[in-house]
Fold this protein.
Amino acid sequence: MSTKSSGGRPATRWLAVEEERAWRAYRRMVTAVQARTAQDLAEHGLSEADYEVLSTLSEHPGNARPLHEQAAKMEWSRSRLSRHATRMEARGLLRREPDPADGRGCILVLTEQGLETLGDVAPAHLASVRRHFIDRLAPDDLAALERIAARLDAPAD
């Protein structure tokens, strides 16, 4: 394929064969691992998003965090997290409290039921992560993946 620009647009940097293979392998890996661990979570009545909300709230002081901070942590919009939190609140997993620092915002608080649910599901989820990911990689692979993930997580130039 051509890399020449037309109509004043920048030239396209097409992927080399090796780059395309790596990109497609990454995409297949992420899709497969996420699907497998999501299926295992679903057997316990939780989605990946439910688990992410519960686990990150449990790691925060007081099992609570302002909705806007939680949304940023999950890389979600506030409205998306608010809708999801409404569904979790209806199931008794969390509650909302007014945010004294933000009159329009709220704080998401893990309920006792949410904490119990997390405690019940965490061992199975960790076993799933091990089965579908950790235990399938050598220690050197894990170290390399951690370095790669850190590099890709950093802001692009």
In short: The longest strand covers residues 102-110. The first helix runs from residue 17 to 42. The beta strands are 64-66, 94-99, 102-110. The mean pLDDT is 93.
